Amino acid sequence: MQTASMRTAYGEALVEAGRENKNIVVLEADLSKATKTSLFAKAFPERFFNIGIAEQNMMSMAAGFATCGKVPFATALAVFASMRALEQVRTSVCIGNLNVKIGAPYGGLATAENGPTHQCISDINMMRGLPNMTVLAPSDAVSCKACVHWAVKHKGPVYIRILRDGEPVLYEKKEDVNIENGNRLHEGNDMAIICNGFTSHMALQAAEELTKEGMHVTVHDIFCIKPIAADVILDIAQKCKRIITVEEHNIYGGLGSAVAEVISQSRPVPLKIMGVNDYFSDSGSHKDLLERAGLTVENIIRQVKDFVE
Are residues 94 and 215 in the same domain? Predict the structure, then answer.
């Protein structure tokens, strides 16, 4: 399977969007090589601002740019964009519903070797709890580009959770990506897997293996976690009767919680939430940390079989 770096796609998309929209500016918290905003800095140095290791100030500055008609992309590692700067995101950006976009690379367990201080498993929970905030979680490089271009057109705060490594490519071109409703990766009636981010390709592989055993599973890739496509979720619940959510996030407050909020109020069906089971992980390789969390193709298959039985 072809792979491509989502954070590189983020930097490339900023350059593409910057060519089309002269009001786009990029703010960076001193990690432009890691977050690939260095691509934008090279293309448009007059519209690039390295704020230094000062994420809180960066969010307030981004809010100021937005009040002047600019479209700021404030970029920092996900754990710092969502936690260190949370008060400024809430007070300076969201209360005024300002047109600030937050690019947050290294979401989930991707900063594996740096340990729990840098691993980011609670950002979706925090960001979707803020009024006016839209929360996006692309699953590959192509959908990441689609999210950036969609965010430019959307009026209001947007948080984009971006991964680190060379992720499997699921889509051919960004026009194939349905940001609001998500994309159907696999069709089946026996049950459904709703997923996002790095886990989407795992869910697809699991569904393909299950098909060989005569079990037909719907896999739906959700990019917009807030506002989530309630009608799509309810249609899946009606059709499949059982749902498993899979995400590289704490089992509390993320995609699984968002799906539970929808179905519990309108169409209750059995639901299982797969993710990081409410613990701080160790230092180690990304692969090892995913295995510890049970986020593997093999475990998804096992969970599906157990759930159906």
Answer: no
